[in-house]
Amino acid sequence: MPDWSFLIVAGILLIIFGFFLIAFGMMRSSRESEERDAEQETGKKRVKGGGVILIGPIPIVFGTDKKYALILIILAIVLMLLAIVFLK
């Protein structure tokens, strides 16, 4: 029987890291919002982004830009390779 303690610890550390990333993003967004309000910009901004949905081995990638779609395709490939490595 393999020792799963490493994966449990890695999972907990990834969850904690995710919480730190969320907190950092909220602080950064708040700071940018304050700067934006101070400058009183009237120009329109466009939001860019995308996502990956993994249904088994088939990735579904969507995005607002070719750049973000390409980044997400690479991310989907990396996630599939990690799944293959950890499941063997």
Topology:
Blueprint: H1 5-39, E1 50-55, E2 58-63, H2 66-87
Antiparallel strand pairs: 1-2
> How many domains comprise the coordinates?
2
**Please, what is the oligomeric state?**
single chain
Share of helical residues: 55-70%
Q: Tell me the radius of gyration.
A: 18 Å
Unreliable stretches: none
Gross morphology is flat
Largest sheet: 2 strands, antiparallel
Tell me, rounded to a whole number, the average pLDDT: 81
Tally the helices. Answer: 2
* Termini Cα gap: 13 Å
* Total DSSP E strands: 2
**Beta strand %:** 5-15%
N to C succession of SSEs: HEEH
Spatial strand sequence of the major β-sheet: 1-2
Structural class: alpha+beta
Descriptive keywords:
single chain; 88 residues; alpha+beta; two-stranded antiparallel sheet; 65% helix
Describe this structure in words.
By secondary structure, the chain is an alpha+beta fold. It folds into two domains: 1-44; 46-88. Helices cover 65% and strands 14% of the residues. The protein has two helices and two strands; from the N terminus they run αββα. Strands 1-2 form a two-stranded antiparallel sheet. Strand 1 and strand 2 (58-63) form a beta hairpin. It starts with a helix and ends with a helix.
